[in-house]
MazG nucleotide pyrophosphohydrolase (Enterococcus phoeniculicola ATCC BAA-412), 114 residues
Amino acid sequence: MDNKQTLASMQKEVDEYIQQFKAGYFSPLSQMARLTEEVGELAREVNHYYGEKPKKIDEKENTVAEELGDVLFVTMIMANSLDIDLTDVFQKNMSKFNQRDKFRFERKDGQTHD
């Protein structure tokens, strides 16, 4: 697998994976439940590694990266099923953040306004 894949190529790969199964894409509500489940698993791992709640001795060893990957995968499934181009969404979001939040936080370059 090429480590420099684009969002579009990743969405295509996820679609090809899903298309091999008769069930295909689940309903948006089912996907939202799955995304929520994966975000919960990510939160649990973050809490174990960076919070005050260590893992129990008998708990499976997962990583934050693994759980974040699951969140990304399920996000792509949901985007595909709703015909959402994540590259387009990302570009629009970055434009919004670069305009709206340009001076929201203290900047390294010292700028405070336009």
Summary: The CA atoms of residues 5 and 11 lie 10 Å apart.
